[in-house]
């Protein structure tokens, strides 16, 4: 086993142990929580090694980085987790199986239009799974739909044939108690499921706070640093 593969294998083992322990503590089954490996700034060779180790879901923050990686390492489920500009919608639907960062009606409309175009071009024939990114701190610089506007955005997405609403995604506010933030997200998810029972996913928790997220019902943790290592000061 190469030194890098061995390093990733050990990191993956530790992350899996953390997820399993958090699930046990919360009285949940391990298979209730999906692990998405966040590979931004790391090469496609690392993605390929993670795939060899059994990782099936990969998340990226930037379209221009993700597209080539997805082409180089096929067979995985790719997630767009970063803030997305509407003019990137057509490119993103060419590689993403799920967009976790939908935070406005205009972006939802752009993605739906891009899926229609992809269908016409026979690039894809399935709807695009989407999560609404919920803002837990109302900071416009960090993205996210205000909680008071979730219902309207969910209804907009649900009316389209091209998008399939799967649930909510959020990032804990900087400097705040992540447990309190994830509790707010869980309550928002409960409200969402009253009108959209199939939108049961909660994507919350990263390398530093995945335990708190799992405690409050996260079904998807997005882990980068704990799996792949630090990215350096120049990382996006």
Automatic annotation (TrEMBL):
InterPro entries, A to Z: Ala_racemase_N, PLP-binding_barrel, PyrdxlP_homeostasis
Coiled-coil intervals, chain numbering: 5-32
SUPFAM superfamilies per record: PLP-binding barrel
CDD domains reported for this sequence: PLPDE_III_YBL036c_like
UniProt KW keywords: Coiled coil, Pyridoxal phosphate
Cofactor: pyridoxal 5'-phosphate
Entry-linked Pfam families: Ala_racemase_N
Gene Ontology terms for molecular function: pyridoxal phosphate binding
Alanine racemase N-terminal domain location: 17-231
UniProt family annotation: Belongs to the pyridoxal phosphate-binding protein YggS/PROSC family.
HAMAP family linked to this entry: PLP_homeostasis
Name under which the protein is recorded: Pyridoxal phosphate homeostasis protein
Organism, scientific name: Amycolatopsis vastitatis
């Amino acid at each position: 086993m190469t030194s890098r593969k061995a390093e990733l294998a050990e990191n993956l083992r530790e992350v899996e142990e953390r997820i399993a322990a958090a699930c046990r503590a919360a009285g949940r089954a391990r298979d209730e929580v999906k692990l998405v490996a966040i590979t931004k700034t790391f090469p496609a060779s690392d993605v390929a090694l993670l795939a060899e180790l059994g990782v099936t879901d990969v998340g990226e923050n930037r379209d221009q980085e993700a597209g080539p990686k997805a082409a180089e390492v096929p067979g995985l489920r790719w997630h767009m987790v970063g803030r997305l500009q509407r003019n990137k919608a057509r490119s993103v639907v060419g590689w993403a199986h799920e967009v976790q960062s939908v935070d406005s009606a205009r972006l939802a409309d752009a993605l739906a239009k891009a899926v229609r175009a992809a269908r016409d071009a026979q690039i894809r024939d399935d709807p695009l799974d989407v999560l609404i990114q919920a803002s837990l701190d109302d900071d416009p610089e960090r993205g996210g739909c205000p909680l008071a506007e979730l219902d309207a955005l969910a209804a907009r997405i649900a009316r389209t044939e091209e998008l399939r609403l799967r649930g909510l995604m959020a990032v804990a506010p900087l400097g705040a108690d992540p447990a309190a933030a994830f509790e707010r997200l869980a309550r928002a998810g409960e409200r969402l499921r009253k009108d959209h029972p199939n939108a049961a996913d909660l994507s919350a928790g990263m390398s530093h706070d995945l335990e708190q997220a799992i405690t409050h019902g996260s079904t998807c943790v997005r882990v980068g640093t704990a799996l792949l290592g630090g990215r350096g000061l120049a990382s996006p």
